[in-house]
Amino acid sequence: MVVAFIDLLGVRARWHEGGRESAEAAFGKLESMVSETLARVSPRSLRDGAIETDSAALVFGSAEDAFSFIRELFADAFTAPPKAKDVRLWIRGTVTAIHSRGELRHAAQLSGQAKVKVFRLDAGRLDAIAVEKSGFKGMRIVVEEKLLTPAVREHFGVRAGSRTLVMP
User: Fold this and answer.
1) 118 to each of 49, 104, 113, 132, how far by Cα in Å?
2) pTM of the entire structure?
């Protein structure tokens, strides 16, 4: 299984410039983009997903579906906004393998505290977050190399003469 992780950039600046309303508008725009992209791409292998304020993580059964989704999402973010008054969303993402049964997080009770839950993220989601936070600047998709199979490279490659540019 594969997790596509997307992080919304510039949230701190939105808070400073427009307050909570500006940040919440960006969160809503991210939700809309994820929803619209899923509706358009219709990935058959979508297993799970979560959007938490300024980030989204979706688990797919196939790398091809994950790449199709995240590529479309990034194309939409890059070509938006449709109107001059709309604010462009800048995002960064990763596509990495997930290590569990595909659950993004697990909940347990805090020892001795019946009213307190502890949420732990799947190792694959932690890997995705770590890669996204590792210093790659700008609007990028970082892909775990082992996911770039010959079939994926063939499907997502862009032909330029006798060469192929890989763009998942």
Assistant:
1) 19, 14, 10, 24
2) 0.77
